[in-house]
Amino acid sequence: MGIMSLYIKCCTERDLDVLVQISKETFIAAFEDQNDPEDFKKYIDFAFSKEKLKSEIENKDTQFYFVFDQEEIIGYIKLNKERAQTDINDKESMELERIYVISEYQGRGIGKWLLQQIEQLARKDGLNYVWLGVWEKNRAAIKFYLEHGFTKFGSHPYYIGKDKQTDWLMRLDL
Fold first, then answer.
1. Nearest one of 46, 67, 82 to 112, comparing CA atoms
2. Is the pLDDT at 2 greater than 70, yes or no?
């Protein structure tokens, strides 16, 4: 696999079953062992249900993109603009709500490549910055975002079931 074989493709409703599968798979791999099992299962069942993801795909201000290595889906991103954003709701910004690469493909520079694609999409839309929320205990992700030009500008609560967690809000000015 080389970076040259990577591309992203916008998801449509036809992709729903695959989106549900990869959403659950990557979130579970990333966070299952750090959360209460009951709260975690409830969150997964709600956040990545077919109905919920269908309504998000249908929202004109939300885009999901699959990440492909040749013909294989190896990750996905979720971008929100305008009122689809989970916070901020600045029409000059884009929220990077989800960025996931399946375990076997991590550590190969795909995250950096994806951030470049996201930055290009935001610039194409004439936006001023990209922002995201990252769990304060996810030190590896925070380090990654800092290394790629993001800065912390606040925090907000994030719930996994009844468990109230804190996300750092980070932004990349374009």
1. 67
2. no
**100-147 pLDDT, tens digit each:** 999 999 999 999 999 999 999 999 999 999 999 999 999 999 999 999
CATH-assigned architecture of domain 3-173:
3-Layer(aba) Sandwich (3.40)
pTM to 2 decimals? Answer: 0.93
By C-alpha distance, which of 75, 90, 74, 160 is closest to 131? 90
Catalytic residues: 145
